[in-house]
Write a structure and sequence with these properties.
Blueprint: H1 2-33, H2 41-59, H3 62-86, H4 91-114, H5 146-154, H6 159-177, H7 179-189, H8 191-196, H9 201-227, H10 239-249, H11 254-274, E1 278-279, E2 283-284, H12 287-305
Antiparallel strand pairs: 1-2
Helix pairs in contact: 1-5, 1-6, 1-9, 1-10, 1-11, 2-3, 2-4, 2-9, 2-10, 3-4, 3-9, 6-7, 10-11, 10-12, 11-12
């Protein structure tokens, strides 16, 4: 029974750690399905996390902070689109430029506003997203097997965790069951044919990067107002790149990307549990090795699977309208 409870706690932590990855992976999927590479997820997450924490601190509401994060990341997405879609700039360079910009900009503004070394002040309970207890969770808490699964694993998460997991089937429906999704995928595969049909390729790609901005803004807000209680300098710690790896591993599809994010989240959760653990015949597990596990897996997966994942045919190619 003790081992069962340990597994439940590990899976519970997996759901929490995979949430920002899921939202960011879906954000990248919408952008790249339209043909626009989005390496800027890391910087956008960072900007969203800072905006959410700073505004939530002043407003005293996590929802206002979430709105601020979404506005900030939509702005960054439009900046990326302006460089890549309107001016047909190099999409990789634009994305990396935003990552570098936000790494320094968030620290600079944080120091100017709060004078705490780039951090924001700690948020109180009213300014953070709090855990939600699902109906009946307390009643079945002590029931064997069912109780821990419902009370510990399914209940007790904040609203953004539930939104992230509901966003996966919603993204699938939008991508594969709506006119917008059909046109979005067509723009990423054959923009010339879409343009011939009288649909604006530029407008579709801008709509895609806006969708990307909304999702990655929620991801950043989760880090600073739900999982954490403040903004810390470079607190994303490569999660934007891991989300990109999960998206590629999932072949730009929502549900496979979800499973990849859960795998990365599981490793992250396991890394926390393994710190200080003594293994027979090996000794204490080095903290540095444990912390590196998710990133090592990222390299392994990309090295082994990126050749098999077929991206949208027009990905990374600026569209020039034929005259």
């Amino acid at each position: 029974m003790e081992n069962f409870e340990l597994v439940i706690l590990l899976l519970d932590a997996t759901l929490r750690t995979s949430t920002p990855l899921i939202l960011a992976a879906l954000a990248g999927m919408f952008s790249e399905r339209s043909g626009t590479i989005n390496l800027a997820l890391e910087g956008m997450m960072l900007g969203g996390a800072f905006a959410a924490a700073a505004v939530a601190y002043y407003a005293g509401s996590p929802w206002v902070g979430l709105l601020a994060a979404i506005v900030a990341t939509i702005g960054l997405s439009l900046l990326h689109g302006f460089a890549c879609i309107t001016h047909k700039g190099n999409q990789v360079v634009s994305g990396m430029a935003i990552n570098i910009l936000m790494s320094g900009f968030t620290a600079l503004v944080g120091i100017a506003l709060f004078a705490q070394g780039g951090k924001t002040p700690a948020l109180d309970k009213a300014s953070r997203f709090q855990p939600i207890t699902l109906p009946g969770a307390e009643a079945v808490r002590d029931v064997p097997i069912l109780g821990p699964i419902y009370f510990e694993l399914l209940s007790g998460h904040n609203i953004l965790v539930y939104i992230a997991f509901l966003a996966v089937p919603a993204a699938w429906w939008v991508m594969y069951r709506t006119r917008f999704g059909l046109r979005l995928r067509a723009v990423g595969e054959n923009p010339g044919a879409v343009d011939t049909a009288g649909i604006s390729v530029v407008l579709m790609r801008y709509r895609a990067v806006v969708c990307s901005g909304v999702l990655v803004g929620m991801s950043g807000a989760y880090l600073s107002t739900a999982q954490g209680a403040s903004f810390l300098q470079d607190m994303t710690a490569g999660k934007g790149y891991i989300a990109l790896a999960a998206m590629v591993f999932g072949k730009w599809r929502p549900f496979p990307a979800l499973f990849a994010c859960l795998l990365f989240g599981f490793l992250d959760a396991a890394a926390t549990r393994l710190q200080g653990v003594i293994l027979p015949g090996i000794g204490e597990v080095p903290v540095q090795l444990v912390q590196a596990l998710p990133y090592v897996l990222t390299v392994i997966l990309l090295a082994g699977f990126i050749g098999r994942a077929t991206p949208p045919k027009a990905l990374g190619r600026a569209y020039v309208k034929e005259r």
